[in-house]
């Protein structure tokens, strides 16, 4: 069983790399951002609630996110492991995730942190905006706010896993393949 948290600021390449990781390691993908966007496009109550926060680049309240992840985890009884993408984003969420996984006796194996400097992040998000259709990618003010929220509220989650000896920092700059190889090396180290 392999449970990975893929971590990093907005625009670090989590979505791109998680697709490759899933293909290679056959993990179940739980991306809270994707789940909220799906609810939004389907017009559910949860989607409507999340929209207010997403539009501003603010975090959706912990209890809402945790409940959604809990349901997703419970849906997957027979998986060989999960990759959590964009979650946990607060220390509270990280503690709750530990609790959810403890029920299954399948703790987090490691956190992969993609490190990319701020100028590069902004360039990537603006480029992604041309095709993503995401309103939170279009506006510099919203992008800046997402990066601020990441530094203030999300970065402490890296410390939470570091204390447990589970943090693996990877340089998130270079070709997609080079970054992927560095990630695989870290993941393969978790499995021995
Ligand atoms: P993402 O696709 O991961 O960049 O997420 C897009 C937006 O969804 C974020 O800016 C938040 O508003 C919301 N969101 C996604 N994941 C979380 C989470 N774990 N906690 C709180 N808000 C989240």
Question: How would you sum up this structure, described in words?
Answer:
The protein is globular and about 40 Å long. It contains nine helices and five strands. The mean pLDDT is 95. The chain has a five-stranded parallel sheet with strand order 2-3-1-4-5, sandwiched between helices. With 192 residues, the protein is an alpha/beta fold. The protein has a single domain, classed as Rossmann fold (3-Layer(aba) Sandwich). Residues 10, 32-33, 36, 53-54, 57-60, 65, 86-87, 89, 93, 136, 146 line the site of adenosine monophosphate (AMP).
Structural class: alpha/beta
Mean pLDDT: 95
User: What's the CATH C level?
Assistant: Alpha Beta
Largest sheet: 5 strands, parallel
Q: What are the distinct ligands in this entry?
A: adenosine monophosphate
Rg, Cα atoms, Å: 16 Å
Write out the CATH superfamily name: P-loop containing nucleotide triphosphate hydrolases
* Tally of domains: 1
Which architecture name does CATH use?
A: 3-Layer(aba) Sandwich
How much beta, percentage-wise? 5-15%
Task: Give the overall shape, derived from the CA principal axes.
Answer: globular
Distance between the termini: 12 Å
Total of helices:
9
């Amino acid at each position: 069983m392999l449970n990975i948290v893929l971590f990093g600021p907005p625009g670090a390449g989590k979505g791109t790399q998680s697709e490759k990781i899933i293909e290679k390691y056959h993990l179940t993908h739980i991306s809270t951002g994707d789940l909220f966007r799906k609810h939004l496009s389907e017009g559910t109550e949860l989607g409507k609630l999340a929209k207010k926060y997403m539009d501003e680049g603010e975090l959706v309240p912990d209890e809402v996110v945790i409940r959604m992840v809990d349901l997703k985890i419970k849906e997957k009884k027979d998986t060989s492991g999960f990759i959590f993408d964009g979650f946990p984003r607060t220390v509270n969420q990280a503690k709750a995730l530990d609790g959810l996984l403890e029920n299954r006796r399948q703790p987090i194996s490691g956190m992969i942190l993609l490190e990319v400097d701020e100028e590069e992040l902004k360039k990537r998000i603006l480029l992604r905006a041309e095709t993503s259709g995401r309103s939170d990618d279009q506006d510099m003010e919203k992008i800046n706010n997402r990066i601020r929220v990441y530094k203030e509220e999300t970065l402490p989650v890296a410390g939470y896993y570091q204390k447990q000896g589970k943090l693996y920092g990877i340089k998130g700059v270079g070709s997609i393949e080079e970054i992927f190889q560095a990630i695989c090396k870290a993941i393969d180290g978790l499995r021995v």
